[in-house]
Amino acid sequence: MAALVIAEHNNQSLNEATRAAVTAAAKIGGDIHILVAGKGAKAVADEAAKIEGVKKVMLAESDALGHKLAEAIEATVLSVASGYDAILAPASTVGKNFMPRVAAKLDVMLISDVTAVESADTFVRPIYAGNALMTVKSTDKVKVITVRPTTFAKAGDGGSASVETLSAPDASAKSSFVSEELSKSDRPELGAAKIVISGGRGMGNGENFAILEKVADKLGAAVGASRAAVDAGFVPNDYQVGQTGKVVAPMLYIAVGISGAIQHLAGMKDSKVIVAINKDEEAPIFSVADYGLVADLFKAVPEFEEELAKLGY
Amino acid sequence: MKVLVPVKRVVDYNVKVRVKPDQTGVDLANVKMSMNPFCEIAVEEAIRMKEKGLAEEIVVVSIGPAGAQETIRTALAMGADRGIHVTTDAIVEPLAVAKILAKIVAEENPDVVILGKQAIDDDANATGQMLGALLGWPQGTFASKVEKTDGGLNVTREVDGGLQTVAIPLPAIVTTDLRLNEPRYASLPNIMKAKRKPIDAKTPEDYGVDLSPRLQVVKVSEPPKRQGGIKVESVADLVYKLKNEAGVL
Asked: Complex ipTM, two decimals?
């Protein structure tokens, strides 16, 4: 038995989601190998080699891989796929882009967004935006799986795997990179943050998100938003927490001016502690919040910031 | 260009689905069904291409039970030209859907296939990419903007942390994200007109594709319910409890 995990990274450092995929691979059993497909990504491979339980790391580099183009990653994964019983990647926008291509080429059905590994062939995945959980048994010879990173523990360090270099094969179909616009922020990434503070339609406009940002900067938190706030144009789409945005599970999730549509709850209900601040005491968000505060957010949030200052934040 | 748009009939996005007590699935009896919202965006994008003079013909395909014909009619009423209905009552996984679509692509020779990025029932997010791999075509997934260029399409994609733009030569696959466009409502005259637009009736056997599922459903269960907690009286109380009770500050 052996499993191949495709690393998530930005060519400089390994994304923690990779460690969640390694944990899922360990539950399936057998040797674990990691493929790092990128450009100038030796440091990522070295980091991956230290993960506990990893036997081998393969590094493939090209311009197309550096830009995470699906067709290029597909070709690279397929070039090493034989011999693995399972191929896993985090269910990120990168993993979701190339993994179905790999599955189709291997003639197997992708098992997407897996939240639990029951056995080497049985997995749990959410359907209907997390309103139901489906347990499926795969009859395919190779299991091709994307893993929801927030539901698996992050595998720690402790390994010392070898790093091999692969040549990146040519992709049959070719897209090419044009440009990239990534949000620049000193705050942690939504998916990795230990604390997330999100605003909803109740924020009124984009400028008002500044009051959340102040709190976020005190707490070292990431700033998120509901789909309603994104659709209203308050903040960019990559802030979105929910079924169609990011799924997060931080230690502390603070929902401000968010009513709590099913769509939003699907993206944050696995958070350890949930706080809701909303002036509507009937808002559904209160039914999932550990601590609810019925208050005008424009008074409560600055007050919250002051209270944090008293604690030394 | 000729555009092919596969569409799926799903439980309407406003319906709160219920898991059946015997855990064999969700209860679909007497539930409102609609076109998958991401598929609607795909249809809308194809129509806008036609309105801009970039596309000549839009063919809509749906694979599913008799009711899927209504979904095709909806797309025709929005402005698509003709339909293909592959009738089956079986649950068809994305891999089998992609295989049938690959056969249809071979017959129809579209320049671009536009699909929703995922269906809101199985949430698989796989069919478009699988079709791309089977055809050996490039893809621009999770599109928030599609522009025609001399060589093909420039697709701006919603990715973690921002946007990425890729150039793809035709023929190609595009999958739609939410912000690509806002689908139109069909007008009454167009709904009437759509009744006369042709729909080809087909079966999976016509395409020789094996529909047997690769994933056996062991059970479908309710997610664990999160218990609501307490209401706090003041911000000071909230901060005190977060620090001393929850231990997260």
From this structure: 0.95
Distance of CA B2 to the CA centre of its chain: 19
Question: Is the preceding omega at residue B171 within 30 degrees of 0, hence cis?
Answer: yes
Structure tokens belonging to residue A144: 């091709």
Stretch 51-80 of chain B: residues touching chain A, C-beta under 8 Å: none
Sequence-ordered list of residues with C-beta below 8 angstroms from that of A164, at least 6 positions apart, any chain:
A56, A57, A58, A59
Q: How far is CA A88 from its chain centroid? A: 14
* pTM score, whole prediction: 0.92
Phi and psi (nearest 5°) for B156? -90, 125
**Cβ separation of A128 and B11 shorter than 8 Å?**
yes
B:183-212 residues touching chain A, CB 8 A cutoff: none
Q: For A53-84, what is each residue's pLDDT tens digit?
A: 999 999 999 999 999 999 999 999 999 999 99
Nearest to A211, CA basis, from A125, A302, A144, A133? A302
Closest by CA position to B245, among listed A98, A275, A161, A249: A275
